[in-house]
User: Fold Thioredoxin reductase from Anaerotignum faecicola.
Amino acid sequence: MYDIGIIGGGPAALSAAVSARQRNKSVCIFGRSLDSSLLFAAEKVDNYLGLPDLSGEELLNQFYAHARKQGVEFVESRIKQIMPMGEYFVINADNNFVQAKTLILATGINKSRGIAGETEYLGKGVSYCATCDGMLYRGKNVVVVGENAEGEAEANFLADVCARVTYLPLYQPVMYLKENIHLKEGKPQAVLGENGRVSALEVGGEAIPCDGIFFAKNSTAPESLLFGLETDGKNIVVDRAMKTNLPGVFAAGDCTGAPYQIAKAVGEGLVAALSAAAYLDEGNRK
Amino acid sequence: MYDIGIIGGGPAALSAAVSARQRNKSVCIFGRSLDSSLLFAAEKVDNYLGLPDLSGEELLNQFYAHARKQGVEFVESRIKQIMPMGEYFVINADNNFVQAKTLILATGINKSRGIAGETEYLGKGVSYCATCDGMLYRGKNVVVVGENAEGEAEANFLADVCARVTYLPLYQPVMYLKENIHLKEGKPQAVLGENGRVSALEVGGEAIPCDGIFFAKNSTAPESLLFGLETDGKNIVVDRAMKTNLPGVFAAGDCTGAPYQIAKAVGEGLVAALSAAAYLDEGNRK
Assistant:
């Protein structure tokens, strides 16, 4: 069990990790590869104080080197879901389940636009994890929407459990699907419901009736990852100590809103880490 | 007239200056010498992301070099007072009066503990600037409290104007005082008042009757520099955009509260600068 699980791999995440290590907390960063950070593509960055005239890639490499030196652990993965367990959290990182006492969300700009009804029916037919929730749909009809080939694995697993699986790929090419999976083309438009539960997925004006919809996404909106997290539009709501509305959950960087700048992310990462460390120490004193 | 006047010379001030220059705003930093920053004395700093293992002095030198390269101007001075003039501010920097359209306060940890009654009677007999307010005390009795030798210049000026000047030095040695100045030893304890105005200064249990008290301080609390600035204890109150309660006035770094860390200061400096730039651009559109 880690003291602090950090979701994201950009400057906010790395700064939080470095400061948490200085407070002697065990830290694991759950992030994507280095080049998935928006910063990686920046040609020149000139307003991070003390390190002028570097490319985004050079800066990120210096940041990673600093974090590695401090003993930060890294798990390169996509986070599917986070489950609050009372005193700790279970992080589903590509179906590898890891525990952490506190969380720092540093997920970057929220690019994951959900479709209409998606957040509303989360946990009521909408899921981001077949491994977690698939058994709830035994003998039922489900649709899997795949933004990448991982959706195929989800669909293939569900094909053994469900009555009917429809697969809607949002990428090309589709690699391997079991024979009993129905392939569908088009873009999902809305999650439809009846009596408070999912009843169909609307695709190109057509409603595909189903009991459950599984989304395999490139990135998941933080409020979909962690149920009950307060957001304001795309931004996670935080106070000046970088606390979210959920106890033990902190946030830092672009996911808390503009300006989308390294210095802001690094500063907020530090504050989030010190707040998480104080929260842990407070708990230990009880 | 500068677009942005920045008060303070630490990481928050320098980061604000660098980001303001990137937005093509003219910037002047009013700060003390490099070695007056608390950071200067730090033996090793290891949690400013990307620049591990440096001394405070080395970091500050890199920070200054970055700011100088961006065309930031510096005025090494002690700020005595800031006067809001509606559309701009007049900054009294060692009696050199400079104008700026907006302000960023990055004054560091508020070490200037006022004595009892000092803030209460500000503008009602308490002043930090003899040049500004001396003439209001023509023919009256004043006390000058000097934390450094600049208090002597204040007292000598007032000696030509006031009926009686008492000088209370909080340092040694006293260099030169005009003959008609009364030297007093001891520590000031409280500003006493009658009918809403200063009536005396309490020193070692004795009340020295006077109409005005001038403090020549090493550092002045921000709320004493700028009338009406909202503080919470020692901290300047800011929102997430680093706005204070006064239009056109922003704050960043240690003066907004803990944690007292470089990354937090640098991040807040950037946010304050971008908020000030947006405020200026907003004004120009009108």
The first strand of chain B starts at residue 2 and ends at 7. The two ends of chain B are 19 Å apart (CA to CA). The mean pLDDT of chain B is 91. Chain B has two domains: 2-112+221-285, 126-216.
